[in-house]
Amino acid sequence: MVKFSAYSLMISSFTPFHSIILKNPCRFYTNIPYSYSTKSRNISYYIQNAKIHTEDVMVARRYLPPLFSVAPMMDWTDNHYRTLARLISKHAWLYTEMLAAETIVYQKGNLDRFLAYSPEQHPIVLQIGGSNLENLAKATELASAYNYDEINFNCGCPSPKVAGHGCFGVRLMLDSKFVGEAMSIIAANTNVPVSVKCRIGVDDHDSYHELCDFIYKVSSLSPTRHFIIHSRKALLNGISPADNRKIPPLKYEYYYALMRDFPDIKFTINGGINSVVEVNAALREGAHGVMVGRAAYNNPWRTLGHVDTAIYGAPSSGLTRREILERYQEYGDHVLGRDGNKRPNVRDVAKPLLNLFYSEPGNGLWKRKADFAFQHCTTMKSFFEETLAAIPDSVLDSPIAGVPSGREDLFANIHDLLPSSYDAREQEALDA
Ligand SMILES: Cc1cc2nc3c(=O)[nH]c(=O)nc-3n(C[C@H](O)[C@H](O)[C@H](O)COP(=O)(O)O)c2cc1C
Predict the structure, then answer these.
(1) What pLDDT is attached to residue 62?
(2) What's residue 7's pLDDT?
(3) How confident is the model at residue 291 (pLDDT cuts 50, 70, 90)?
(4) Is 157 known to be catalytic?
(5) CATH architecture of the domain formed by 6-317+408-431
(6) Which domain of life is it from (predicted)?
(7) Domains of the chain by residue range
(8) Measured in angstroms, how far is the CA atom of residue 176 from the centroid of ligand 1?
(9) Which residue has a Cα nearest atom 26 of ligand 1?
C-alpha cells in the first residue's frame, strides 16, 4: 500500500464551525516550511519573535512552536513562578496554569486576578480547560484583551476533579470531534495561534493508530497546527495525578512517528525531559519543540539558566542569584496583599524561590529559616534579611556553572523504534 502524508488530506477537509460563537470565522494557518537545523531555527525564531506582538495575522502564517517551553503546572506556574523563570531565562516560553473556561466567564468582573501578568513574561501561553463550547468561546474572547501569545487547550489532565466533573482534560481525547469543534471555536475568538496539549492515549485507547486518529480529526476540523504531546498515556482508574505522571511508561517513539506522519503539523515533545542536554538531544533528532515541567520548577536555576545560551544560542542575562532576588524582591513587595484578605502573602510569593538553591550549600538551613520567617514577615525585604544569611556569598554571587550533565543518548535509536505509518486514507474511508 502506498503511504502518504496524513495531513495532505486535511486542508480540503477543514470546515470551520459557523455559529454565533465565532468571532473571526475566516482565520486560517499557512504552513511555512523551515529547516530542521537548530542553528537556522534560532534565526527564524528571532524573526518570528520580533513580529509576534504586532502582526497577528502574520503570527498565524509564520507560526513555529517554541524550541523550549515551561509546562503548564497547576498551583506551580503562577505569576510568581513565571516572574522568577523570566528573570532566569529571557527566551523560554512560559505556560500558565490551566484556567477553567468557567472561571474566566464567571469571574468576568475580576479578570485581572486570573489573567493579568507583567509584559516581561512574554512569550506567554494561556492554557484553558473546559467542555462547554459557549464558555470556551466567551473565555477565549475575554482572554484576548490580555494579549497572550498563544491559547492552549488542555486535553491531558487526568485529575478526577477535571476528568470526572464536566468531562474535560484527558477524557476529551476520547471525543476528537468535540475537541475539533472546541479548537475551531477557540481559534475563531482569538487572533493568536492555538494549540492542544494531550497525552498519547487514555486507558486501553492507547494504540498509535488511535492517537493519529485524534490528531487527524482535530486538525481536520480546526486550524490547530501545534500539538504538545505528553508522551505517556493517562490512566483513569483512580490513580493520583502524580502517579499518572510516573507510572504509564514514556513512549517517545509515538512522538517522533507523529512528526513523520503529519509533516505539516508542529509537535512539541513533553514528559521526563530533565535538562538542557536532554532538550538538545530531542531537538537533534528533529523535535520541533521541547516542553519541560517538573525539572523547571524543582531546579529552576540549573534547568532554565542554560536555556538562552545552550538552546537559543543567545547571550545569558548574566544575573547572579543575588541580583535575581533583588529584582524579585521589588516585584514581591509590589504584589503583596494585592488580591485582598492579605493575599498573596510572603509565603505565596516566596514559594517558587524555595527551589532556587536546590542541592547547594545552605539550602536546608535557608528552607528552615524561611519556614520560620513565614510566620511573621510581612515584606519580602524583611524575609530576605532574615533568611538569606543561610546561603554562602559564593553561591549567591556566582554566575551559572557549566551545563549539567544529562542523558545525551535519551533519544538514540528512536527512529528504529517507530510504529508503522498512519494511513489517513483508511480513516477517511471510515468517516465517509
Ligand atoms: C504540579 C503539576 C501540575 C500540573 N498541572 C498541569 C496543568 O494545569 N495543565 C497541563 O496540561 N498539565 C499539567 N501538568 C503536567 C505537566 O504540564 C507536564 O505535562 C508533566 O509534568 C510532564 O512533564 P515533565 O516530565 O517535564 O514534568 C502538571 C504537572 C505537575 C507536576
Answers:
(1) 55
(2) 33
(3) very high
(4) yes
(5) Alpha-Beta Barrel (3.20)
(6) Eukaryota
(7) 6-317+408-431, 321-396
(8) 21
(9) 293
Give residue 126 CA to ligand 1 midpoint distance, Å. 14
Pocket of ligand 1 contains residue 156 by CB under 6 Å: yes
Q: What is the mean pLDDT of residues 183-205?
A: 98
Ligand 1 binding pocket includes 123 (Cβ within 6 Å)? no
132 grid coordinates: 462547554
User: Residue 292 CA: which ligand 1 atom is closest?
Assistant: 26
Calculate how far, in angstroms, residue 259's C-alpha sits from the geometric centre of ligand 1. 22
Which tens digits make up the pLDDT trace of 324-354? 999 999 999 999 999 999 999 999 999 999 9
Whole-model pTM: value is: 0.87
Task: Find out whether the beta carbon of 193 lies less than 6 Å from any atom of ligand 1.
Answer: no
pLDDT of residue 25: 37
Q: What's the pLDDT tens digit per position in 377-430?
A: 999 999 999 999 999 999 999 999 889 888 999 999 999 999 999 987 676 777
Picking from 34-48, 132-146, 346-360, which range would have the lowest pLDDT averaged per residue? 34-48
Q: How far is the CA of 249 from the centre of ligand 1 (A)?
A: 15
